[in-house]
Amino acid sequence: MIKKLYVLSLVIGCIAPCMAEKVKIDIKAQTKSQGQQQPILRAPMNLPIEVVYDSDTMTIEVSCATDLEGEVYVYDASEVLEDYSPCLNTILSVTNSDYHTIVIEGDGWSGYGYCNKDYYVY
Fold it and tell me: pTM (2 decimals)?
């Protein structure tokens, strides 16, 4: 019985790190002010944008179901630009950094998301 537990724990220990996980990243959106004081918004701005981090392929997939336009930037933990796309429907490659910041900028709005390698969603 103990041998079976050892073998089972060994198999799980070998397989678990190999399992890739796709994790959805929440994007917090805000409007940009044009020189005047920005009004206080009581409800969060919702964007029809979905961002998914794939730990197996080391990519971040950004997709938008509407005709919304924007640019996507991905920064590493040192705030160095890792990848850029001038459109929303894209797949961006990332390095093996522990922490990534996703910045999406459009006309009059911007969105921010964070991806932590240890916890995947921040």
Answer: 0.71
